[in-house]
């Protein structure tokens, strides 16, 4: 009874409404995005199942005080890493990378769940390491190792997008701490210096091609429109041709005539932007903007360090994933595989975000308890 | 009892939230700005590309106009050529090529060409169709069409190509086509040619190109990313935007008479090289334009190999040259009427005054030989027997400038204005020209000019128009080939009226007496063409000519076994028929045919007999005499 009252009084309705809106709009958009394809046309139904399941998991997450998660932080982290190792043992290869393991007839993508486990692990570490004076590079070694193990495994799949995302979440959380400016500058310098090495040893040739294509486009050269820049180009065409009002639901030609690649996973936003125009884009952008800022607000009101770090971590997850995806489809960032939270099709992705949102809401609600 | 960890101070984080929020605002503002740029500022640009993406424009070629002769016989028409196009992107290199191979029964060379060309395609052009085989057989076309759905990357497209049922006949006048090249695209930019289209290269096909070609149409269809056609035309706008029907070119009715042309061809059997012109003296319309040897227009309009072209251009009989308008010759004795008219124009020379021909003429120390000793001759008998001595005498009194002036009056030395095949203007050498080129003027030059040698050169067409003017009482016409321009449904677009170049300033009775002389050249037993006459046929008037060829200058590097032939004189006959009521003028030139009376005159007679007997429901079609064994009077 107490739980029900708590839920009613302390429930974060704005977050709930906004997240539900994104999810529903995503399903509607997925219906249009997959209607041209015979094989994928029931994906929107699958997505509804996953969203329902995700909502159930999220409520479960909300119901348990987040401090319990703090207790089992390392366990969660360990399970995540173990699953990542399992990928190499059981995983099946799709388009040159091994990311999924079969679970009860479904394909689970451990790297998605790992994002949440990483956030919890980092939160736990920072929770137990309260420092008031400035942190230096030495203080980054242990969190760095916490990041490095899963990130290395993810890179090996290879999944550059998720690995980058993990690094971004880590970076955001670390910036939250009282890191000294000199240490920050050293980090930045190290990053810049390591870029050529990353280019040579980490990036695959198709990834290099995409980056080159991106660079060429920035310089205004579109000579490679039919090769590696094809995806990015057709995405811009879809968004731009949507104009202010859009072409109407199910009437986007770039989508319906299959000029857009991966319109269910990586490129659902162009489908939306083409059919619903600037107005639709603005609506969606505002919703994500709200979720991120709301997440930061929840973090700032959190009663303890764990809650604050988890909230910032989830906000960072949503923020970076949204920004990288939208940046990619609008041509301001190079093409990397990155889904748009809740909007893209994908069970693991939906589940991960729903758990994240559940954690966020959990922190939001627990600010009232003492 | 679950033990929860104690709460920890969050003060360390406080100062960062505002910066994070600010960063979020900045990043979302960038995305917002980008969306404004893409969807509001550049919406037309991207909208255009999106529309282009799903639109494929198919060119609908226009049907080229037909060319018919004056009897309605088709000279140039169109037939479908089945061309095979391949879209590399839609081709499975193993399976589809195998299938094409089986269906088309490719030979080894074709198989290799196919693979080589597919391998050469640049990556970003793999969605562009390339033409692989041209004008494939009906069997191959049918085999591919039947399996069309299995081979989405292979298209058979029917393209109209030109067909010339008369093949080599009148080839120079009709002309041929071939594909526009880069230079044409540049030169005719305003005329909107596209690569792959054809353009008239010679003859009527070239000169009447803009009437014949028509306007191509377009059809826009909806395609998906893989180039497959889709339904859903509403995206493209109204039906009117989708199709613009091609407009067929205009048909031409030309003045040529292909039946007459066949007669000309028959009459030229046994003569390897030469030309003929038949013109209606009442209108200036050309009934026959014959140049031998010729070439097959279908071959020239198709894929002519460079070997074949070189072979033709090195042929000593020069098949590529239009001998009726492009080449000029010494007119020989066919020029003598001009000398006569020049003399009578002056009025000083009495046509009845007699001159004694002893077989030669002395100028200074030189002795110029006549064809024989003609004895006492007056103007008429001199013309009939083609006595050089008489005309030399005339020329001495008339002078070079007056000869040239009369020649110019009848159109020599200037283009006739036929408007095809870069016409030669011929040449009339003036006194000044001789002084410049030969150091000084000699009277011998004038004497040579009087008998059509010297440096006077004219085309067959010029001589034909000149004799037409003799025949019609002094009207010099502009020669015409096209009589009517019609739409494909038969509607008249334009009727080309006969065009008079000038009315020559020669009294009618002077021309009348000239015509009588020319009639007697053929019909008087003393005449140089008497042996070629046809007893019961139409009466012909005319003049023979034997034009000397500058020895050895004809072709360098010619071996001596051939040289004798190429040093022989050209044989001329120019005249008109019927002699009393002329309808047509005719000019025959048999290259290296020797004496005009013996070689050229019978050819002319045969043609004219054929022409008049076929035109009139003849009661008795007498075959013309082709007996050339007896010696005619040598001119």
Number of helices of chain B: 23
The rounded Rg of chain B comes to: 36 Å
User: What's the average pLDDT of chain B?
Assistant: 83
Low-confidence stretches of chain B: 617-635
Shape of chain A: globular
Which structural class best describes the helix and strand composition of chain B? alpha+beta
Number of helices of chain A: 15
How many separate domains of chain A? Answer: 1
Largest interface: A-B, 64 and 49 residues
- Major sheet of chain A: size, sense and barrel closure? 3 strands, antiparallel
Structural summary, described in words:
The complex is a heterodimer of chains A (370) and B (635). Chain A is mainly alpha-helical and 370 residues long. Chain A is 69% helix and 4% strand. Chain A has a 3-stranded antiparallel sheet, with helices on one face. In chain B, the strands form 7 sheets. In chain B, strands 2, 3, 4, 5, 11, 19 and 20 form a 7-stranded mixed sheet that branches. A 5-stranded antiparallel sheet of chain B has the order 13-12-24-23-22, with helices on both faces. In chain B, strands 1, 8, 9 and 10 form a 4-stranded antiparallel sheet that branches. The C terminus of chain B is likely disordered. Classes of the chains: A mainly alpha (370), B alpha+beta (635). Chains A and B meet through helix 4, helix 8, helix 11, helix 13 and helix 14 of A and helix 1 and helix 2 of B.
Helices, strands, pairings?
The complex is a heterodimer of chains A (370) and B (635).
Chain A: H1 2-10, H2 13-33, H3 43-63, H4 66-71, H5 73-90, E1 92-94, E2 97-103, E3 106-108, H6 110-127, H7 141-155, H8 160-176, H9 181-202, H10 205-218, H11 230-242, H12 253-256, H13 268-301, H14 305-329, H15 347-366
Antiparallel strand pairs in A: 1-2, 2-3
Helix pairs in contact in A: 2-3, 2-13, 3-15, 5-6, 5-7, 6-7, 6-8, 6-14, 6-15, 7-8, 8-14, 11-13, 13-14, 13-15, 14-15
Chain B: H1 11-41, H2 43-54, E1 55-60, E2 67-68, E3 74-86, H3 95-104, H4 108-120, E4 130-136, H5 138-146, E5 154-163, H6 171-174, E6 177-179, H7 182-187, E7 198-200, H8 203-207, H9 209-213, E8 217-223, E9 229-230, H10 239-242, E10 243-244, E11 251-254, H11 258-267, E12 274-280, E13 286-292, H12 297-301, H13 306-314, H14 336-346, E14 355-357, E15 360-363, E16 366-369, E17 375-377, H15 379-385, H16 388-398, H17 400-409, H18 431-438, H19 443-450, H20 460-471, E18 475-478, E19 482-486, E20 492-495, E21 499-503, H21 508-523, E22 541-547, H22 560-566, E23 570-577, E24 584-590, H23 596-615
Parallel strand pairs in B: 2-11
Antiparallel strand pairs in B: 1-8, 2-3, 3-4, 3-5, 6-7, 8-9, 8-10, 11-19, 12-13, 12-24, 14-17, 15-16, 18-21, 19-20, 22-23, 23-24
Helix pairs in contact in B: 11-23, 14-16, 14-17, 15-21, 16-19
